Recover the amino acids of this structure.
């Protein structure tokens, strides 16, 4: 999947200013999400997800809104998913997508290369816990279909965040709901049509005892890039991990001895797929 420039080596800190009107915010919203960043409110903010043809991008942003209940309650931070179109070389036509009910949040969208599916995290009613990973089909006119929960093979009673699609079928995401190495760990699941495999932890070569948010693989360079706050004073930075293509088989192998998580999920063609919550009705 083609994306905008991924993440700077040391992700710069961005402090969110006051809210602006939607009309004034279009350019500002897009500029803030072109590259990954760090916010004092949002924590790590992933870059925009862009379709292969480079014409459509998806991103999320939080705004403070009145809660559903409590007239005198403080405003709550609610996240929305937006779509932008590239016209004459400029990103414009920013549209808020209705992928979850009002007063719930949806964030961290990632789109397949052909633009047909959008994965995102949401805390909408019906989730297994806090934030779950959902998927929605995108119609030819850009309208999202019904959001479908990916089910217990991916989601837990805790947070699942930062989904990212690699090579059309490999879903990476961060989870803190499983026994891992500490904080958010990176996992992967193969998604084929309307089925998916049980999630696999990517192992100690990629995960740490801190929060590990996202990974991007670069086969031509035989390396990947992990975004994590394992740095000094929990600084969010990009870390390089290496993996190579086997000389005997058309496979990717994590170079760290004993780390088989990434190798397994990328190479195993014998996984038994089972339907999940998002399986289409016949």
């Amino acid at each position: 999947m083609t994306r905008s420039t991924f993440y700077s080596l040391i992700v710069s800190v961005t402090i969110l200013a006051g809210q602006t009107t939607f009309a004034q915010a279009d350019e500002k919203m897009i500029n803030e999400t072109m590259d990954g960043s760090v916010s004092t409110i949002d924590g790590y903010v992933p870059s925009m997800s862009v379709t292969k043809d480079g014409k459509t991008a998806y991103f999320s942003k939080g705004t403070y809104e009145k809660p559903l209940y409590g007239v005198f309650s403080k405003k709550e931070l609610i996240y929305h998913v937006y779509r932008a179109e590239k016209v004459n070389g400029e990103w414009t036509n920013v549209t808020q997508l209705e992928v979850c009910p009002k007063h719930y949040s949806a964030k961290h969208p990632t789109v397949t290369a052909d633009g047909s599916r959008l994965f995102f995290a949401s805390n909408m009613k019906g989730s297994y816990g806090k934030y779950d990973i959902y998927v929605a089909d995108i119609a030819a006119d850009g309208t999202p279909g019904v959001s479908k929960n990916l089910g217990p093979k991916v989601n837990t009673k805790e947070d699942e965040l930062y989904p990212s699609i690699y090579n059309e079928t490999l879903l990476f995401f961060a989870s803190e709901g499983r026994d891992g190495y500490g904080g958010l760990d990176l996992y992967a699941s193969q998604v084929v049509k309307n089925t998916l495999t049980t999630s696999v932890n990517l192992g100690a070569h990629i995960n740490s005892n801190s929060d590990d948010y996202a990974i991007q693989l670069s086969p031509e360079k035989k390396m990947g890039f992990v975004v994590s706050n394992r740095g000094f004073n929990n600084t969010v930075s990009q870390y390089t991990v290496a993996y190579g293509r086997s000389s005997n088989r058309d496979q990717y192998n994590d170079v760290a001895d004993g780390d088989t998580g990434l190798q397994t999920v990328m190479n195993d063609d014998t996984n038994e797929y089972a339907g999940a919550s998002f399986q289409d009705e016949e």
